[in-house]
Design goal:
Oligomer: single chain
Largest sheet: 2 strands, antiparallel
Strand order of the largest sheet: 1-2
Strand content: 5-15%
CATH superfamily of the largest domain: NinB
Radius of gyration: 21 Å
Helix content: 40-55%
Number of helices: 5
CATH architecture of the largest domain: Orthogonal Bundle
Order of helices and strands: HHHEEHH
Length: 136
């Protein structure tokens, strides 16, 4: 169920529902709905991937993107429900919220400069317009 806690009616409904779940000793999960990454974050991230792919000599931008995520974020463990084995899998940017994506991009920008010598400008930084003309 989705509740908007800025609305009194939703707060009352949520409390009543939660009390009912507690009374019945049900297992439940409460998660905060955060805004998904923005399209401008996504667009810039993919331009940066293209820049680094060219800079580092990748033939595939998808391979470059995979390697960037592994270097910056590592991998997460997930249970294969069919085999029962715990496997490592890559993080997926389409599942990130705006804060997580911003953190990834800040870390990516710093890593690219310090470890690869590749400058990746944000909007309004020197070189941004030229980068967009070439890679967008």
């Amino acid at each position: 169920m989705f509740y908007d806690f800025s609305k009194t009616f939703d707060i009352e409904r949520a409390r009543a529902y939660l009390e009912k779940l507690i009374e019945k000793k049900k297992k439940t999960e409460i998660t905060e709905k955060r805004p998904k990454r923005t399209l401008s974050q996504n667009d810039l991230f993919h331009v940066w991937v293209a820049v680094l792919a060219d800079f580092a000599g990748y033939e595939s931008r998808e391979d470059c993107k995979r390697d960037i995520k592994r270097v910056i974020l590592g991998q997460r463990e997930c249970l294969n429900r069919l085999t029962g084995e715990v496997e490592k899998t890559d993080y997926e940017t389409h599942l990130m919220d705006t804060k997580e994506m911003s953190n990834l991009m800040d870390r990516f920008k710093a890593w690219a400069m310090t470890e690869q010598g590749c400058y990746l400008p944000y909007k309004y930084e020197l070189g941004y317009e030229d980068m967009i003309k070439e890679y967008n």
